[in-house]
UniProtKB/TrEMBL annotation:
<dbReference type="GO" id="GO:0003700">
    <property type="term" value="F:DNA-binding transcription factor activity"/>
</dbReference>
<dbReference type="GO" id="GO:0046983">
    <property type="term" value="F:protein dimerization activity"/>
</dbReference>
<dbReference type="InterPro" id="IPR050807">
    <property type="entry name" value="TransReg_Diox_bact_type"/>
</dbReference>
<dbReference type="Pfam" id="PF08671">
    <property type="entry name" value="SinI"/>
</dbReference>
<keyword id="KW-0238">DNA-binding</keyword>
<protein>
    <submittedName>
        <fullName>Helix-turn-helix domain-containing protein</fullName>
    </submittedName>
</protein>
<dbReference type="InterPro" id="IPR036281">
    <property type="entry name" value="SinR/SinI_dimer_dom_sf"/>
</dbReference>
<dbReference type="InterPro" id="IPR010982">
    <property type="entry name" value="Lambda_DNA-bd_dom_sf"/>
</dbReference>
<feature type="domain" description="Sin">
    <location>
        <begin position="62"/>
        <end position="100"/>
    </location>
</feature>
<dbReference type="InterPro" id="IPR010981">
    <property type="entry name" value="SinR/SinI_dimer_dom"/>
</dbReference>
<dbReference type="Pfam" id="PF01381">
    <property type="entry name" value="HTH_3"/>
</dbReference>
<dbReference type="InterPro" id="IPR001387">
    <property type="entry name" value="Cro/C1-type_HTH"/>
</dbReference>
<dbReference type="GO" id="GO:0005829">
    <property type="term" value="C:cytosol"/>
</dbReference>
<dbReference type="GO" id="GO:0003677">
    <property type="term" value="F:DNA binding"/>
</dbReference>
<feature type="domain" description="HTH cro/C1-type">
    <location>
        <begin position="6"/>
        <end position="61"/>
    </location>
</feature>
Length: 106
């Protein structure tokens, strides 16, 4: 059940229900009803918001699929911020390479 998976991932991330609801921008009461399986068919928008806030794929919520490359919430927000700033993938890769070079100089 989706509600059980939401609760499992939320508790694994050590998030309270209030914290997840705030991060995802969803109503705590609705999140609670999902976790308790009172609501069993959440919308795609709800699943997108909750999975992003948990730093997991929607597929993990739907199918309990193992995460291949889990990103926590903070990394997801940093990535979004970089994208919103207009940085290109090439510029980001260049920064990573520069940072690797700089660390190698020490």
């Amino acid at each position: 059940m989706i509600g059980e998976r939401v609760k499992k991932y939320r508790t694994e991330k050590k998030m309270s229900m209030t914290e997840l609801a705030d991060r995802a921008g969803v109503a705590k009461s609705y999140l609670s009803s999902i976790e308790r399986n009172l609501q069993q068919n959440p919308s795609v928008q709800f699943l997108e918001k909750v999975s992003a806030a948990l730093g997991i794929s929607m597929d993990a919520l739907l199918h309990d699929a193992p995460e291949e490359t889990p990103l926590d919430y903070e990394w997801m927000k940093i990535t979004e911020e970089a994208m919103d700033s207009g940085i290109t993938k090439d510029q980001f890769r260049e920064f990573i390479e520069f940072n690797k070079w700089k660390l190698g100089q020490k």
